[in-house]
Amino acid sequence: MKILKKMGSKFLAFINSDVKEESESKELAVMLRVLSIIFGIYYTILSALVTALGYYNLSFILLFFLGLSLAIFICTYENKTLFSLYCFNIILAVASSFLTLKVGYSMNYHWMIFLTIPLTFYTTHTVIKHKFLYSFAAVLLIIIVTMSATIFPVIRPSAPAIRITLILLNTIIFASSITMIAYFYCIKYTDSENKILQYNRKLLRMASTDALTMLANRRSVNEHLKDLVFSSSKTGKPFSVAIGDVDFFKRVNDQYGHDTGDYVLSTLADLFTQVCGEDGLIGRWGGEEFLFVFENATAEQAYQKLEHLLHTIMEYDFHYKEYAFHISMTFGLEEYTGQFGIESVISKADTKLYQGKENGRQQVVF
Question: pTM of the entire structure?
Answer without folding.
Answer: 0.58
